[in-house]
Structure formats: C-alpha cells, structure tokens
Amino acid sequence: PQPTGESIVSEWQPIETAPKGNYAFLAWEPRVGSIRVVCQIEQGHFELFPEARLWSMAPTHWMPLPEPPTS
C-alpha cells in the first residue's frame, strides 16, 4: 500500500521511517553518491527496481517517488 494524504512526504526522511513491503521509493546512499528506486522488504533489507535484486548498500534517507505525468 502506498502512503496517502498527510503521510506523504516531499523531503528526504531518515531511512528508519521508510515504508516496508511492496512500496517503491527513492533511497539515498551517500557512500557511493547514488539515488536508487528500491523497496524495503524488511528492516534494513532493500530490493532494487527494476532489477528485483537485493541491494547491499546502506541508504541513509528516503523519499516517495514523484507523481507520474498527467499528459
């Protein structure tokens, strides 16, 4: 389930507050300077999109994906 309403954030949040399960979001990994689209399958375990493979990095922050274009 995707966060809705007041639960949607528009700024980078600590990774500890990231949603778990089947919710894709942006994750920031400062050691390599990388932003990736991931989901957190359980606390501290991330899966990359679209590769669907585990990510061994340690992101520090997350942000929801932007809304898709309307036209």
List keywords for this structure.
71 residues; mainly beta; 6-stranded antiparallel beta sheet; single chain
3D structure, described in words:
The protein has 71 residues and is mainly β. The protein is built from no helices and six strands. It has a six-stranded antiparallel sheet with strand order 1-6-2-3-4-5, with no helix packed on it. The chain is globular. The model has no long low-confidence stretch (mean pLDDT 81).
SSE inventory with pairings:
Elements: E1 13-14, E2 25-29, E3 34-42, E4 45-48, E5 54-55, E6 61-64
Number of strands: 6
Going by helix content, strand content and strand pairing, the class is mainly beta
User: N- to C-terminal separation?
Assistant: 25 Å
Low-confidence stretches: none
The helicity comes to under 10%
Q: Name the assembly state.
A: single chain
Largest sheet: 6 strands, antiparallel
Helix/strand order:
EEEEEE
| Structural Rg | 12 Å
Provide a short characterization of the protein structure:
The protein is 0% helix and 37% strand. By secondary structure, the protein is mainly beta.
